[in-house]
Amino acid sequence: MLIKEYSGLTQINGPLVIVEGIGDVGYDEMVEITPPTGETRKGRVLQVSNHRAVIQVFEGTNGLNINETRVKFLQHPMEIPLSKEILGRVFNGVAEPLDQGGPVFAKEKYNVNGEPINPFARKYPRNYIQTGISAIDGLMTLIRGQKLPIFSGNGLPHNQLAAQITRQARLGDQLEDFAVVFVAMGIKHDEADYFVKSFEDSGVLQNVVMYINLADDPSVERIIAPRVGLTAAEYLAFEEDMHILVIMTDMTSYSEALRELSSRRGEVPSRKGYPGYLYSDLAGLYERAGMIKGKKGSITQIPILTMPNDDITHPVPDLTGYITEGQIVLQRDLYQKGVYPPVNILPSLSRLMKDGIGEGYTREDHPGISSQLYAAYAHVQEVKALASVIGEDELSKRDQMYLELGRTFEDVFLNQDRNEDRSIEQTLNLAWEIVANLPKTELDRVSADMIAKYYRGKENNGET
Hints:
Layout lengths: L4 E3 L3 E3 L2 E5 L8 E6 L6 E9 L2 E6 L12 E8 L1 E3 L8 E3 L16 E3 L16 E3 L3 H6 L2 E2 L6 E3 L5 H11 L1 E2 L6 E10 L1 H14 L5 E7 L4 H20 L4 E7 L1 H14 L13 H9 L3 E2 L6 E9 L8 H9 L2 E4 L2 H5 L12 E2 L15 H25 L6 H18 L9 H12 L12 H7 L10
Helix pairs in contact: 2-3, 4-5, 6-7, 9-10, 9-11, 10-11
Family: Belongs to the ATPase alpha/beta chains family.
Organism: Iocasia fonsfrigidae
Protein name: V-type ATP synthase beta chain
């Protein structure tokens, strides 16, 4: 294989360089850029046309000289070495070690762009992953092989929630191998320190592999980081037969890096300046989750994104909602009331939940009691709207009962300590305690058998 080296650049534009007069160069090909000072930087081909290549430089373009910089095209895409020894390690966004563990030695290197899962080869997701958080486990259960994003906002505790899920997540069946791939994009140094310390102190770091891209790292590295993390997840899931949970935060930072790069390339912008291919780019990441027939492992994704101005119609949450199988929405009003995690259950859902809960999975009463809680809390919102007009004292006894249920639901069921790990049994028992505020006649989403077995509430019909 003949590797050609070219001397001189045509243009430097932010994190991009342009080289002309090249031949036999492919899209996504890796590049070595050597400035006059001699240290080598990595790059990746973004665009090729008419003997001209646009290259993104991972380490940035500071210090590059148009006339004296040398460019070498390596004739292969970006690849990373992978083995089971990556568990317990901390890397940067391009898989270089940030800890003291040294480089990863492996028999093979793996293309970070991955390959799409053949839809025919996909296995339908079943079985749940327990997070220890009642709002998620009880009402929007995470299923193995699912992609379930968290929609948050600036200042909301999504980082704490991500760390808590990483510490507490486990399979319903503890006999199988389980691990977490944690990808952080555009986070601050103190946030990175918080994640690492949180996992070390709780003793789960040995079961986690971290890829961290800091806010002051080159933005182009932010685009590579989730691909690196997902490649590691695919290796562990489909070659080491493990069940992998991938947590990626923050997908808005990733999308903004994509927008910056698109603008540098002079592409025609779409909604709010994002590139027109944002949907397909996000889909290329999210669709790497799932289960494959004939393979024991699985990849489950929790992408976390912050909605600018808490706007759920912003392009990033909007497109994410189309691609993924539900969402968990954090609400600022609940957070200001002191509720943690501040999950607004009404716009939140898990579309695959119905097939991974109930008898043989969680508990027989799970589908009914979760539906009953949703219905009751939805009615609470109607009662609150009415109370804001006529006052609480003028409400009927039935409506006051629902108002009390709403307060108990938020204070007892939703609200839990940041280190509290509730089992699925505790969560479901707590749900029955909440609906015990209502008489039996109000429970129209659960069967008579379930009421007889689990209900411990009022026997009267209540007064309307």
